[in-house]
Amino acid sequence: SVVIQECYVQNTAREYAKLYAAEAEPLEGFGEVPEIIPIFLIHRPANNIPYATVEEELVGEFVKYSVKDGKEVNFLRRDSEAGQKCCTFQHWVYEKTNGNLLVTDLQGVGMKLTDVGIATLAKGYKGFKGNCSFSFIEQFRALHQCNEYCEMLGLKSLRSTHQKQRKATSTKSKNLPNSSMVKKMVLKKAREPRDFISSEH
User: Fold this and answer.
1) CA distance to 2, 89, 91, 153, 156, per residue, from 150 (Å)
2) All domains in the chain, ordered by first residue
3) What digits encode the pLDDT tens for the residues 145-192?
4) Most exposed residue of 2, 80, 155, 190, measured as fewest CB within 10 angstroms of its CB?
5) Cβ–Cβ under 8 Å, residues 74 and 80
């Protein structure tokens, strides 16, 4: 069920956030680290909706910090400490999983986050499949701008690797069979060439 999936995703993201905190907190000047709050599944057999989730209520201004689909650029995300640390968390997870997994849709009050999503490549990562489109990973790589927290953690810039991959993909796409269907797909996906190649797997 969707509810069970939601719990699974958020609690998996929470485990990554704990590992991130363990690495970031000891760094001089890093300060507070975002936390993903736990979400609990309860079973209510007498109720006509037998499964529900329970989590701590967050009080205060609720902000969406991370880029969900590439179109959403939130200034609070860019300029706030919590927003920058969320983007660094995304970069950290991306690097730790070799670009196979991204925690996305980071939102919450201050440093407390909830209702997050996870994108994985089509085949999943270590037996885990995300609940968001794997194109989010591509968009993150194209749009992420490193900040001082990325530098503190020694994360590698995604700019140069992204350009190299784009060049490699454009040469590959020239060798594709010349059918009109392929042409249409390539045109439609021109902005995300790797999407087209990944979707064959």
Assistant:
1) 33, 8, 7, 5, 8
2) 2-153 (3.20.200.10)
3) 899 999 999 999 987 654 545 555 444 444 444 444 433 333 333 333
4) 2
5) no
The pLDDT of residue 71 is 52
Residues near 97 by beta carbon (within 8 Å), at least 6 away in sequence: 125
The residue behind tokens 């040469």 is 171
- State both tokens at 177: 């069979």
Please tell me the distance from the alpha carbon of residue 9 to that of residue 45, in angstroms, as a whole number: 23
How far, in Å, CA of 102 to CA of 140, rounded? Answer: 8
Q: Is 156 left (phi over 0), alpha (psi -120 to 50) or beta?
A: beta
CA atoms of 56 and 157, how far apart (whole Å): 35
Half-sphere exposure of 180 (CA within 13 A, CB side): 0
Find the DSSP H helices in 109-179: 135-143, 148-152, 159-174
> Strands 62-64, 39-43: parallel, antiparallel or unpaired by DSSP?
unpaired
Q: Annotated active-site positions, please?
A: 105
For the chain, how are helix, strand and coil distributed in percent, rounded to 5?
45, 15, 40
